[in-house]
From TrEMBL:
Domain called Major facilitator superfamily (MFS) profile: residue spans: 10-397
Highest taxon of source: Bacteria
Gene3D superfamilies: MFS general substrate transporter like domains
Pfam short name (any one): MFS_1
Localization per Swiss-Prot or TrEMBL: Membrane
The keyword Transmembrane helix is annotated on this UniProt entry: yes
Transmembrane segments: 12-33, 45-64, 76-93, 134-156, 168-185, 216-233, 253-274, 281-299, 305-325, 371-392
Organism listed in the record: Mesorhizobium argentiipisi
Record's protein name: MFS transporter
PANTHER family linked: CARBOXYLIC ACID TRANSPORTER PROTEIN HOMOLOG
Lineage of origin: Bacteria, Pseudomonadati, Pseudomonadota, Alphaproteobacteria, Hyphomicrobiales
UniProt keyword list: Membrane, Transmembrane, Transmembrane helix
């Protein structure tokens, strides 16, 4: 993969933006039980914060994407990163559950813009032959953010510095850190060459483009609904499963989650690159097939070692499939709305899958239920659904990207 220095910096910036976005999101998954205790409620009530974040992300994808298609990928990406950093940190000051949920809904709007902006900036800036590998790298930002959250949780949570204790509120203050990426983007990352080339030319608007391509847009939303069930259904409640069902301490929860996210990074890199050789559709199919035999290890074993093995394999599969998505959606999207449409489709799929977390938690905590059963049910059903649905997708590997059309 031969990239220029500027192209490498663009990929790094897009990767870091998504990594720290995911870091902010996944901090919450480690803190559900602690927030519930402070606000004197239960885990399903607090897990509505996950639902609200997912449900509002499509608003941010649309809003920030429209701005980026008009004013450029680079300046709107910087605005977006500052927005999610500040809103994420404000959750530390929530006086009650209602305010906390409202702030997480606003965080979802800010979070919703980053993926589409970062992926369009990167995909429009690199050669077609590098897209599969870069797609895997970009999507690895998501598990890398989860991994970073796990490391920070394991190292800092509950630690004391004098009279100060790192509780859940202090953890959210770390959300200020992503804003530092803006300095790097401003100084080192150029605007998308495709956007610069097409800036002065007349391009069709979003509504006109959707009327022309509504079938592929609708199909992609359904596909992304299943993909979001796949990722969030295997990740969001896993730390709670380890704590509540197995009684593991924060250190054990942290290292199992770290192992899982190492698997996710391996999967994204391997399957992103593999998609250049066997195609986007075949790579996604293969990854989902691997998830099925991992379910018993991942959800039903009892020792930390075996659960870690299962979590590693499961996340190789989940993020292996996801590693192909940035390039696949960008290749399917018309160039005139590439900053808006891929991100909007991605987040509209999130909206369609919005109630997965609370629904899973409800199944897990119902009489006769368990977190292991709820996790296994989601993973198995959704993996099969993706295998079926992805076979209907167009394959546009290597397509030339412009901002016209």
């Amino acid at each position: 993969m031969n990239l220029t220095t500027e192209q490498k910096k663009t990929v790094i910036a897009s990767f870091l933006g998504w990594t720290l976005d995911a870091f902010d999101f996944f901090l919450l998954t480690f803190l559900l039980t602690d927030i519930a205790a402070e606000f004197q409620t239960d885990v399903p009530a607090v897990s509505k914060a996950l639902f609200l974040t997912l449900a509002t992300r499509f608003i941010g994808a649309f809003f920030f994407g429209m701005l980026a298609d008009r004013y450029g990928r680079k300046p709107i990406l910087m605005l977006n990163i500052v927005s999610y950093s500040v809103i994420g940190a404000l959750a530390a000051f929530s006086p009650n559950l209602g305010i906390f949920l409202a702030l997480r809904a606003l965080f979802g709007i800010a979070m919703g813009g980053e993926w589409g902006l970062g992926s369009s900036l990167a995909m429009e800036s690199i050669p077609p032959s590098a897209r599969g590998t870069v797609s895997g790298i970009l999507q690895c930002g998501y598990p890398a953010g989860y991994l970073l959250a796990a490391v920070v949780y394991g190292l800092l949570y509950g630690q004391k510095i004098g009279d100060f204790t790192f509780g859940w509120r202090a953890m959210f203050l770390l959300s200020f850190l992503p804003a530092l990426i803006v300095l790097f983007i401003r100084s080192h990352v150029p605007e998308s060459p495709a956007f610069v080339e097409g800036r002065a030319q007349t391009r069709p608007g979003l509504l006109e483009t959707l009327r022309k391509h509504w079938r592929i847009a609708l199909y992609a939303v359904v596909l992304m609904m299943f993909f979001n069930f796949f990722s969030h259904g295997t990740q969001d409640l896993y730390p709670t499963f380890l704590k509540k069902q197995h009684g593991f301490d924060p250190h054990t929860v942290s290292w199992i989650t770290i192992v899982a996210n190492i698997g996710a990074i391996v999967g994204g890199l391997v399957f992103g690159a593999l998609s250049e050789r066997i195609g986007r559709i075949n790579a996604i199919t293969l990854a989902c097939v691997i998830a099925l035999p991992a379910i018993p290890l991942w959800a039903y074993t009892t020792t930390p070692f075996m659960l870690a093995i299962g979590a590693f394999i499961m996340q190789v599969a989940v993020q292996g499939a996801w590693g192909v998505i940035p390039v696949h959606l960008n290749e399917l999207s018309p160039g005139s709305v590439r900053a808006t449409l891929p991100g909007f489709i991605y987040q509209a799929g999130n909206l369609a899958a919005y109630y997965g977390g609370p629904y899973q938690a409800g199944i897990a905590e119902a009489p006769g239920g368990s977190y292991g059963y709820a996790l296994a049910l989601f993973a198995g059903v959704v993996a099969v659904c993706i295998i079926v649905v992805i076979r209907f997708s167009p394959e546009k590997r290597g397509q030339v990207m412009t901002v016209l059309g």
